[in-house]
Amino acid sequence: MAVNILGISAYYHDSAACLVRDGEVLAAAQQERFSRKKHDADFPVEAIGYCLEEGGLALADLDHVVFYDKPLIKFERLLETYLSYAPSGLRSFLAAMPIWLKEKLLLKSLLHKELATLGGIETADLPPLLFTQHHQAHAASAFFPSPFERAAVLCMDGVGEWATTSVWLGDGNRMTPQWEIQFPHSLGLLYSAFTYFTGFKVNSGEYKLMGLAPYGEPKYRDLILDHLLALKDDGTFRMDMRYFNYANGLTMTNRAFDRLFGGPPRRPESPVTQREMDLASSIQSVTEEVVLRLGRTVHRELGVDHLCLAGGVALNCVANGRLLREGPFKEIWVQPAAGDAGGALGAALSVWHQYLDQPRSGADSDRMQGAYLGPAFDNDRIEPYLKGAGIPYVRLDDDALMARLAALLDDEQVIGWFQGRMEFGPRALGGRSIIGDPRSARMQSVMNLKIKYRESFRPFAPAVLAEQVSDWFEHEGQSPYMLMVAPVAESKRIAMTEDQQRLFGIDKLKVPRSQIPAITHVDYSARLQTVHAETNPRFHQLIAAFAERTGCPMLVNTSFNVRGEPIVGSPEDAYRCFMRTEMDYLVLENCLIAKSEQPAQPRDQSWQHTFELD
Questions:
Q1: In the UniProt record, does the keyword Transferase occur (predicted)?
Q2: DSSP 452
């Protein structure tokens, strides 16, 4: 009899659900893709419903349900923190306690109620409910699906119950904790403090900070290391909490932080100045240094050649790339849903392997299936929708479709690409993507300002045929989840003139850096996604068709959404997003939709933003 385990993450941000059957990940999805509420923290009703449907199960058929956090331990941490900062922490204590006393402290009862309502059954008939620790779930999500039989596991995030950084040794079906750094000393919260200070939104704007860093100089690096972070040679650290407000207040930083960096935080949506670029460069440099030191320490202490990463800091692909190139490990594997959503998956796998003591199978292969674990919609579902809505389209077989798309991309057309199963995690990996020609010098600004409606400095990633990645980038091996940054190959770069080398700030964006300028960042780097025929054959086929036509084995790949919206989840979501932007074509499986043939619709101007950078 098969054992079915449902993992759940909820009530903080990026709620998600995952179904594991006999150790195999059958389905996983974030609630935001269904609710259309970005970073949705609510109980993941629709994500659970999808997982159960994918597994052909009712809720009562499950053997275990597991939550990714231990709320009583977290409550203990909150109480101790507020008491240690009393009376200055009173304001945040009064803001947080009603929610905790009403919901989170009674989480077991709340989960039972939500599950019983969802399943239409009595609480007594629910499957057993288990809880893992937060970093245990992160570590399990990193090690158990990885291709390594034995590996070090490094988890870095804001905070779980107490841990902010934890080290584990994974061996077979066991994970043994080694040591941890505890709250309030947190690399994730330090990075988020600078996200807040530079005017971006915490828990979503960290990507922007990382993308902004190459436009600045790390002139504040020493200031950070001298005042904010006492960093040891082994990578462990302590923060000077006199500059931070997150432990006892309602903001990330305080006036002492303002004085240290010469002024108050940037107001959201105001112009980004050179100060923000230099701050981004500085905290990125410090983060990379911490990660490199921690990596070397873990390698020395555990004596293993493989490393797995999870937690929100593991989404810092620049730091990951440096650790791979400069660190001591032969291979690094990063969980694609490294943030809290991945906790649902890790919790479920932790129950299977550790609680039930079941062996790992296929430990020499990546068991995330390319992260294509969400819903799929076939042509038989899509065509009735298009016909019923009166949407003009043409249906093409795969060969004709790929040839047509290759020609359109070669003509600098921007295409919404919706096919196969939806990705699990924050990256679009060729299931729900917007694609374009990486050779186009204007593609980055066109896609940022006219389609994504976001800041012009935001970089795009190349989706490159795995078998040709080393021809274009200084990278060997796989990077299927867009979580490694690598330099563009010297042979593909364009040398800068002396005048161009003297440019600074956002003016750097105006200078093409390589033969593939749309995906080459100003520091000659790119955020790689290697595309594999085994995990996404149709996306691989499309890129191969483009390569045959142009000699370029890659496409620009960015997530199918606009600023402030989750990645599209359904054909209806995709068409709405397509019509609200200046994309030229939309592909829904084998159905090709041209913008020029669509009935006129009023443009929703609220989606558009103008960004002036000085």
A1: yes
A2: I
